[in-house]
Design goal:
By secondary structure, the chain is mainly β. Strand 7 and strand 8 form a beta hairpin.
Length: 80
């Protein structure tokens, strides 16, 4: 299980800092564009990211203890 709570995919924003929040299963390892993020006891995770002008693509991966991966892709457009 892997869900992205916010922001919505394909959103257009006018700020360069934004927090990506999601949920997976507790005990699962998660990363966003290769950067490991902490997953709390309820499976929640978040990471503040800096956007570049234009489209910013993020790959979110959740990996369980058996090495099975679930992936999601999120695109955020930064238009200052």
């Amino acid at each position: 299980m892997l869900t992205i709570a916010e922001p919505a995919d394909e959103i257009v924003v006018d700020v360069s800092l934004i927090k990506i929040r999601g949920k997976t299963l507790a005990g699962v390892a998660a990363s966003i564009n290769g950067e490991v993020v902490d997953v709390d006891a309820n499976g929640n995770f978040s990471l503040q990211v800096t956007l570049e002008e234009g489209p910013n693509v993020f790959y979110i991966v959740a990996t369980d203890e058996d090495g099975k991966e679930v992936t999601a892709q999120l695109t955020i457009y930064f238009a200052p």
